[in-house]
Specification:
single chain, globular, 39% helix
């Protein structure tokens, strides 16, 4: 089993749930990153207290104000991270921030479709663009051929709810806006894997499992998977991926998920 070794990582939606889990796990690695950037909408707010506590104990954790639906905020975050890295690149961009609206199909609205798509699909596109110069730099700095998550990578947190073949848990939660946004995120991942391949940047979509988070509980049932188990699994998967896996859609145990 390989171990993920990155000098720097950025996680969006890092103040709770899976995002916070990624931050905690990255900081706890035997060889933790020199910098962990935690993107969150309101760094000083009530919902970021856990993150603030972590930052007070870990000088390598930097909380970055980031509203993923606002291009100006994304641009400012990229500039701030670039400044902190002092000429080095960013190894790992984890696009985790996501929202769901648990609507039935007949109640879907333009507003909900637009908001969910903007957060879950357009934001990872814009973040990939904004951080591209730093990801390119990381790829150039890493010796050796081939792409990997330790070198330069975009990791998009998707869902098997976006699998067109499976349409998982339809009876429990229809949420067409969420399903459509994740199916589109999977296509974005393929596009990024092809578009950024020439720069040595890896791209993958990961289904974290049905996890005990605010979003995971939207359907009203208790999900079977803890944040700890999901994030631990995903980091193990990321540490073992190689160039051939770029553009894949995998779950937290490394299994291929049907498109």
């Amino acid at each position: 089993m390989g171990e993920l070794r990155v000098r720097s990582a950025l996680v969006t939606g890092a103040n709770r749930g899976i995002g916070l889990g990624f931050v905690q796990h990255l900081l706890a690695l035997p060889n933790p990153p020199e910098w962990v950037f935690a993107g969150c909408r309101d760094p000083k707010g009530q919902r970021a207290q856990e993150l603030q506590k972590l930052a007070s104990k870990h000088p390598n954790l930097v909380i970055v104000p980031l509203e993923v639906t606002d291009p100006a905020s994304i641009k400012a975050a990229a500039a701030s991270v670039g400044e902190r890295l002092k000429g080095s690149g960013l190894n790992l961009l984890i696009n985790n921030a996501g929202i769901v609206r648990a609507n039935r199909l007949e109640n879907e609205t333009l507003k909900d479709m637009s908001e969910v798509y903007t957060t879950n699909t357009i934001a990872p596109l814009l973040l990939g663009q904004a951080f591209l110069p730093l990801l390119k730099k990381a790829a150039q700095e890493s010796p050796g051929s081939g792409m990997s998550c330790s070198k330069a990578a975009i990791v998009n947190i998707s869902s098997n709810g976006g699998s067109i073949k499976e349409v998982y848990l339809w009876e429990g939660i229809q949420a067409a806006c969420y399903r459509c946004s994740k199916a589109a995120l999977n296509m974005l991942t393929r596009c990024q894997s092809m578009g950024y391949r020439e720069h040595g940047i890896f791209s993958v979509a990961l289904h974290p499992g049905w996890v005990q988070t605010d979003l995971g509980c939207e359907g009203g049932a208790m999900p079977p998977l803890t944040v700890d188990a999901s994030v631990g699994g995903m980091l193990k998967v990321l540490s073992n991926l190689s160039e051939k896996d770029s553009g894949a859609f995998l779950d937290w145990e490394g299994n291929v998920v049907a498109w």
